[in-house]
Description:
Layout: H1 2-17, E1 19-23, E2 39-44, E3 49-57, E4 61-66, E5 71-75, E6 79-85, H2 87-103
Antiparallel strand pairs: 1-6, 2-3, 2-6, 3-4, 4-5
Helix pairs in contact: 1-2
Amino acid sequence: MKKRVFVSAGIFLLLVSCQTQVVNQVKPLHDNTLELYQKYTIQTNDSKIQKVQVLKTDSENIYAKDKNGQNVTIPRKEVHEIKKFDLLASVAIIAAAIAALVFIPV
């Protein structure tokens, strides 16, 4: 029973830790918030979610390329939330979960 709890908690933490919130209601979008040519998940105010690679930003828009290769322009004032995939945190969580399963006696 305890093993299932640890495995379930580990999977939940893994799924939550894969993405880091870069922009939300508390963290506003600034000029240097987004790194160029990095992949982000952008949610707009109308709840539309787009997975894009940011190509350019200016004071009014974010210019990006979606996973189909089409250019997308997203107005900055329409951005509700931006998340970035964080591989390092994901690997650390996986390693911690495996270590917990191996070293914690059941």
